[in-house]
Amino acid sequence: xxxxxxxxxxxxxxxxxxxxxxxxxxxxxxxTDAAHMCEDLDVFDFRLEPAxxxxxxxxxxx
Length: 62
Description:
Helix content: 55-70%
Distance between the termini: 18 Å
Number of domains: 1
Order of helices and strands: HHHH
Shape: globular
Mean pLDDT: 91
Strand content: under 5%
Radius of gyration: 12 Å
Largest sheet: none
């Protein structure tokens, strides 16, 4: 996940939020820090590659 985030120039949290959107999940941020919230939600100007999505799905699959 760290390498994927570095490749995209994003944080790991942003990769997780983008992944959630890409698989049809509405991510919710639970921070009270406005800057952190803005960073978390700054995921609408990039997409994960299908291989990235598959790799994350493999990490969370039972």
